[in-house]
Amino acid sequence: MTQYYSIIELNTAVKPSIMKKLYEDLEIDKVFYLDPDLFFYRSMTEIEDLFDRGQSIILTPHALGPITDTYQPSDDSLLISGSFNLGFIATRRSPEVMAMLDWWESKLEHLCVITPQGNYFVDQRWCDLVPSFFDNVHILRHPGYNVAYWNVFQRDLTHDESGWTVDDKPLVFFHFSGLPFHDLTGVSKYQNRLTIDQIGPFGDEFRRYTAQIAANGGTEGKKWPMPFPLVCGSQPINSTLARQCLRAVVKPHAGSPKGKVTDLDFLNDAVEGLPADEWFPLSKIMYYTWCEHPDLREYFNVFTRKERASFIWWFLGNAPERFNLERPFLNLDHFLGTWDRGGDHLIPLCNAMILVWVIRPDWQSAFDLTSETGRAGVYLQYLRECIVEQAFPRRMLPDLSAPCTLFEHCSESFTVGEYAIYLTRSDLHAEIDIREKKGRAAYRRWLDQQDDPLIAALRPLDAVRAPSRSRKKSKATT
Question: Does domain 7-221 have CATH number 3.90.550?
Fold first, then answer.
């Protein structure tokens, strides 16, 4: 679980296991789980009374009545997060509690996840079933328990000489969930209904609570690194999508990798079950992304080569922003670092360039990949859309410093991009012959005089040009 769960998923997944461990190792009769952002104003006498009356499992609902306005959270959002808030659960040693913890633990081993489209919300949604599955379960409707942003607007919170009360009953604990420490105005980052001023005098409790947390170093925890790090190659991995993909792979029925997985580079391996494609391999994480998102499945049919290429291009361009996915999972070494040298062709094309040519009918009509001029056109159009038009993300820009092999023995050298420009400018060919030393010098002067944004953009990327100019004169092939 430490490998494939996010920090929130992992923290909630271990609840039943730790509660079981306490019962098994210690001679105790009661185990409570309390979220770290609860603040208690009095003891839980009602819980003790319920235990004395034979109840074994006590849950608190998010809300005690319908939510009728249009703000968040709403009745609909409670269907996603679950009926009960599992920031609090009270249990008493009994056969039904041990059975419930065993069942809960088995579900959270692989399905303590946040996937609303799959009806999962960490540990909470599972507990919607607890009142139906087990005996002696009590749903506590006392308004002073688990007061929070999701129900405080439905309750009358007042203060008198006896302390805080909620609907004329004592406030037992407040749940400061999602507290925005930098600005308390919004009450919680998970709601849009209330401001701190609308809560009234209890707003001072928010300020007092945050001050106490800060005084005790509570905000330092946000700076702590993930205790169970994953990497892809050498880069640390934090994306939820990568962990979800790993979780799908390590399930026993999916053929899990042997031993503990810490390097996720294997998720870049080509997925099995699809036709092999040397140029456009669909990696495991690409395929998982496609499978898990209905909009992508509807738009791309990855079982055909052209649409598989279209999906891969979409993934390369959008996955980092949409899924907060780290660069190693884009497999850019393959798409940008693998060059089709095209046999005797002098214009090599990286796989990403060929990928775009396959999915763009306008490119296919304009550029013949069997000709040097056509390949030059693909090369330059790719660079133009990436650098000048910014239609492609900058990360899709390959290394442009490689010299054209035609000039490897010449004193004046040109990059592949500069040679591609020459090939596509037929108006230059009658006046400038770059096979000759004089022609190469003339072409260099011509390049320096151009204000074309593509040529200008290529200049700082040119790692060949400067050394060639400072090079001492040597014999050159003319």
Answer: yes
